[in-house]
What we know:
Layout: H1 3-13, H2 30-111, H3 117-137, E1 140-143, E2 156-162, E3 175-180, E4 182-185, E5 188-191, E6 193-198
Parallel strand pairs: 2-6
Antiparallel strand pairs: 1-4, 3-6, 4-5
Amino acid sequence: xxxxxxxxxxxxxxxxxxxxxxxxxxxxxxxxxxxxxxxxxxxxxxxxxxxxxxxxxxxxxxxxxxxxxxxxxxxxxxxxxxxxxxxxxxxxxxxxxxxxxxxxxxxxxxxxxxxxxxxxxxxxxxxxxxxxxxxxxxxxxxxxxxxxxxxxxxxxxxxxxxxxxxxxxxxxxxxxxxxxxxxxxxxxxxxxxxxxxxxxx
Length: 201
């Protein structure tokens, strides 16, 4: 077969490419294709606008929730500060109220000009009991370690270290004498006890 005929046969087998400017498939005009394309683009644009509107609504909703959360947080902080302020005020008020009977007892004792020493002593002891009771009601407790107790640097302050007599069986680093009682307030040291401590042998 000649080369030209062979080339012609191969060219005949190649399917022609579609030209956008050329008429489309049989029965569909260019105007109809353009209208369909415009409708598809319009639908895609509508979907995009709907998604944007939905996102804007969601953003507004989240912004509103954030502002509400901020307002709730500020209100909670304000209420907590008010409660702390009231608690401090009423704590002082309660402590002062518990001391009023002590003041009454002291004033009553001074009112008796002709009281005997025994009566004055008895009144002073009663007043001291009232005072200790008032302190305990407000969680103020004595630190008064017994002799021989292990020295506790967290609640006690050693004023001096003293040697023990040879016949003493007391261990070193223990309390020998309490010079001044200490006090705790709600498990916190208000004032350490002043003590002397046994020296090492």
